[in-house]
Design goal:
The chain is α/β, with parallel strands linked by helices. The longest helix has 19 residues.
């Protein structure tokens, strides 16, 4: 059995994460909650989906976050004419040798910035499925491992905007967290105007791929009591039996909830998960995976309300242990 992370490891990890957060904050003006949610995805070996109307700095945030990681970065601008091979790559003929060689697509990087992912049709969006889940791609029958760490940071516009396609449920389920990007406050927007024309240097890498892998390993060893596993299952189960829900949180979502709670505990300097950690990440992890019935679908906040109702209804009960 793997040993739980100790306090020294947690303190060192939190210090490095604070450096990363500070590097992003020098470029991105706004609430740091989206940054912390993206850190949760990074630490838990998941992927993040950023959603918001155009112009709220989704791309600015993911570019600053990716640059500060010190990892290889590739950006894909999703458009209606984008093909799956444009993402994964394909074999091309080398005339001089008369052989076919792999022309690797942008998927072969540590961080993929999938900009406006819901501008492309489902066939192209699904090209990411295998990569996001298995950390590999299959090109004409040949299997290729992707570099580690591997993180997809995707942005999307609200699905009711012109020229957008809803993401398939199977693909949405592969995103560990959804980051809701809202309009900035008046003070934040004024600060953005003040600093926009300033000569701000690009973010410097504060981590390396090896650092990211070490942080992920520490996160995986954050201790979780058995009672909290039961609590996570109870929260997901509540969403599956809700009257307004057609499709509730999957077992993959429950697993993601625990992984995200470990990451949230690490961000706050604790070597163990508390019930509040599960509650803190529940909406980001579960809400986007819920499919509502036709009546509830008209309310954009209905998914969040289902999760909030689960948190207020399902109580945490600590089990009795023999001495």
């Amino acid at each position: 059995m793997t040993a739980a992370a100790n306090t020294n490891e947690i303190a060192a990890a939190r210090e490095r994460l604070d450096f990363l957060r500070g590097a992003v904050a020098r470029i991105y003006v706004g609430s740091l909650r989206p940054v912390d949610t993206m850190l949760v995805a990074l630490l838990a070996r998941g992927h993040a989906l950023l959603e918001g109307v155009p112009g709220v700095a989704k791309t600015t945030l993911v570019k600053a976050f990716a640059a500060a990681l010190g990892c290889t970065i590739r950006r894909v601008q999703f458009t209606p004419d984008l093909l799956p091979a444009d993402i994964t790559g394909t074999y091309v003929l080398t005339p001089r040798e008369g052989t076919f060689a792999l022309r690797a697509g942008p998927i072969f990087a540590n961080v993929i910035l999938a900009d406006e992912i819901n501008r492309a049709p489902a066939k192209t969006q699904s090209a990411l499925l295998e990569a996001m889940q298995e950390r590999q791609v299959t090109i004409e029958g040949d299997r290729f491992e992707l570099p580690a760490p591997f993180l997809v940071l995707a942005t999307q516009n609200p699905v009711d905007l012109e020229g957008t396609y809803p993401l398939p449920e199977a693909q949405i389920d592969r995103f560990l967290v959804r980051v809701a990007m809202t309009y900035p406050t008046a003070r934040e927007e004024a600060l953005m105007l003040k600093t926009h024309s300033a000569d701000v240097p690009p973010p410097q890498p504060v981590l390396s791929p090896r650092d990211v892998l070490e942080l992920q390993a520490v996160t995986a060893r954050v201790y979780v009591e058995d009672d909290l596993f039961d609590y996570a299952v109870a929260i997901s189960t509540f969403t599956r039996s809700h009257a307004r829900v057609v499709l509730g949180a999957s077992p993959r979502a429950t697993l993601g909830l625990v992984q995200a709670a470990r990451a949230w505990a690490l961000l706050h300097g604790r070597p163990f998960v508390a019930p509040d950690d599960l509650r803190a990440v529940a909406t980001s992890v579960l809400a986007h995976r819920i499919v509502l019935n036709a009546e509830a679908e008209d309310d954009p906040k209905s998914r969040e309300r289902v999760v909030e109702e689960a948190l207020s209804t399902v109580s945490y009960r600590r089990g009795m242990r023999a001495v």
